[in-house]
Amino acid sequence: MNWNASTIENLRRVFTEGFTARDIAEPLASFDTATATAEVLGLMNQRNFDVVGVRKDGVVVGYAEREHLCGSTCGEQVRTIEVPISDTAPLADVVLGLAESPRLFVRVLGAVGGIITRSDLQKPPVRMWLFGMITLLEMRTTRLIELKCKGDSWKQYLSESRLQKAEALLEERKRRSQNLELIDCLQISDKGQIIAKNEEIRGLTRMQSRRQAEQAVKMLESLRNNLAHSQDIISCDWGTIVELCKDMERVISGTEAVQQVLECGTHHSNLIPWANGSCDE
What we know:
Layout: H1 5-17, E1 26-27, E2 30-32, H2 37-47, E3 51-56, E4 59-65, E5 79-80, E6 85-86, H3 91-98, E7 103-108, E8 111-117, H4 124-148, H5 160-175, H6 188-197, H7 199-202, H8 210-228, H9 238-246, H10 248-253, H11 256-264
Parallel strand pairs: 2-3, 6-7
Antiparallel strand pairs: 1-8, 3-4, 4-5, 7-8
Helix pairs in contact: 3-9, 4-6, 4-8, 6-8
């Protein structure tokens, strides 16, 4: 992969425009303000809705929550929708919005017509988007380790058993006529160990200790594994997802120093997107 300005721009477009709120939003069921509360609750219980929209003159003007719905009509308990997001909003904005609120209302064609909750982040578009980010990070890390640890000197940071597993995988891939190097057969946890144990690399990040580095990579590995095996990514990996979205630009392109490393083969890097390191010459 050529890590040049054109590649970075293409990646930026894919990750910021390729997946949007529209891809995961659910239609917002809504009722006129005069609709009987019993009727609204009946549908909410039947479909397990926590929230419905409330319409006035055919337009959604607010919402009602099942746990607070009382009185004779649903309009008596209407709550204001503060700022709905556009259906074209990037997924990163959706995640950050859900970090602050249990739900987001989605504006479609100028009117509120959809809703997104954290459970919607379990859907395939979000999983593909997140897996793509982790793949990008891992690919960049692999290349940086190659540049930083000349002549396979990275081997010193791994146990004999981990090296043997990588070598066995390499032999299997060679048998299948795949043209790879040993470093291409390392697992993300192996690369994490290299980052954690190489003080020069770790010193370029905010992580002041080996433990911090190991924890950061462990978080990425957990998210990657849960994505790969279609497991729940919200209960255990929510913090990691939010951190990735807080710093999308660094996830996509790295710092200027990272770009210089990848383009020119120099020895500066910033491996973890939320570990902002210095880049002194």
